[in-house]
Amino acid sequence: MSIYQNIFHYYRGQTRSAAEETQILQVENNVTKAFLNVLQHSSPELTIAFVNILGINSKEKGFEYRYQVNSPLPKITPIAAIIGIAESNEIKTGVSKQYGIPDGAIISNEVSLLIENKIGFNSYLEQEQLNRHKINFANGQIVKEKPIILTWKEVRNFLNNQYQYFEGKQDLITCFLLRQFEEFCLINCIGDKQKSKEYFFLRFEKLKARELARTIDSYIWNNNNFNVLDAGTSNGIGYKREGKSKFATLTTARQRCLILHIGEKEWNLGLEIQDKIDNELGIKYPRKDYEYTKYPHEAYIRLEWVENFSQIEPYINLANEYRK
User: Fold this and answer.
1) Nearest one of 68, 65, 46, 49 to 57, comparing CA atoms
2) Following DSSP, what letter does each residue of 156-175 receive, concatenated?
3) 49-55: which pairs have CB atoms within 8 A and are 24 or more residues apart?
4) Phi, psi (5° rounding) for residue 146?
5) What's the pLDDT tens digit per position in 245-279?
6) How many CA atoms lie within 13 A of 49 on its CB side?
7) Number of alpha carbons in the 13 Å side-chain half-sphere of residue 319
8) Where does the pLDDT of residue 11 fall: very low under 50, low under 70, confident under 90, or very high at 90 and above?
9) Do residues 143 and 137 make contact, with C-beta atoms less than 8 angstroms apart?
10) Backbone φ/ψ region at 191: left (φ over 0), alpha (ψ -120 to 50), beta
């Protein structure tokens, strides 16, 4: 499953002109909607379990879910609380900013929960905003004084544990939604400050390429002759030996490919090996003009063009051997 096939991931296309704050808000809203969709369309047991981890004892199954709560909730319930979910459980105070409406709500005959969501490791829940959300409950509703705070890491751990439970019950729909949401979190780095390897694997659009990326990573890390160290980059997974430069990178740049860094720049081995790889795969990699002069030590492999790993294994070994 690639990022384009995930049912929750919203592909925005090119948004270079959009402000960073606007882009974060788009993802933030999508995270809330995705989370509520999982609860709404899964077994009611999942929402009951979620309510219970908040410290609220409820067995009610008739839940209503709301997104972007722009009017007061319709009724008074025995229990009501503000739920804050963010990357950190820290709450900022003393912020003088105009705040919007709650991101979502979960309502039953027993509970009224308003949800405020923040994403990004430089974003925090704010006490004033959480307090202001109380006006969105029904008139006369008694609300828990302190908000209930969860991190997205805790939410992901909870949902992954629930997956094991529903897998045992053979609840295919709930399991499917839980897997899709976990993948959605990986794609968008929700609850994971460092981009995981799976984040980069999922960037390869075709299933064949994703599986080969995992095979390459496993081969390099489990090969005692390589003895590699992590040399991650902002747009991929890098591999190097101690005291050496990178000899390979699985990258989401260059139209998503494996880069082999072969020897020193002045040796031009990348260009020589590129011809051999192109002949092996039966298709020529479209190097840009500047790549001939700026990166003559690099060879590029589009993973979807590879029939089997044995075709490229010798070139990975060669890159490791020649990298100084």
Assistant:
1) 49
2) HHHHHHHHHHHHHTT-HHHH
3) 49/158, 49/162, 50/158, 51/106, 51/111, 51/113, 53/158, 54/81, 54/83, 54/113, 54/148, 54/150, 55/148
4) -100, 140
5) 899 999 988 888 999 999 998 999 999 999 999 99
6) 16
7) 31
8) low
9) yes
10) left
Q: How confident is the model at residue 35 (pLDDT cuts 50, 70, 90)?
A: very high
CB of 125 closer than 8 Å to CB of 91: yes
123, exposed or middle or buried, with CB in 10 Å at 0-12, 13-18, 19+? middle
Put simply, whether the predicted model's pTM sits higher than 0.85 gets the answer no
DSSP state of 266: G
Q: How far is CA 206 from the centre of its chain?
A: 18
pLDDT over 50 (residue 297): yes
In the chain, where does DSSP find H-type helix? Answer: 20-41, 44-53, 127-132, 152-168, 172-188, 197-201, 207-222, 269-281, 289-294, 313-322
Mean pLDDT to the nearest integer, 140-167: 96
Q: At 317, is the pLDDT very low, low, confident or very high (cuts 50, 70, 90)?
A: very high
> Hey, what amino acid is at 122?
N
- How far is 99 from 97, CA to CA, in rounded Å? 6
Give the integer Cα–Cα distance in Å for 105 and 64. 8
Token pair listed for 197:
């390897």
> In this predicted structure, what is the pLDDT of residue 122?
76
One DSSP character per residue, 99-164 reads ----SEEEE-SSEEEEEEE--STT--EEHHHHHHGGGGSPTT----SSPEEEEHHHHHHHHHHHHH
Angle at 30 between CA 25 and CA 31, to 5 degrees: 100
Q: What amino acid occupies position 63?
A: F
DSSP H or E run through 239:
strand 236-241
C-alpha 251/C-alpha 236 separation (Å) is 4
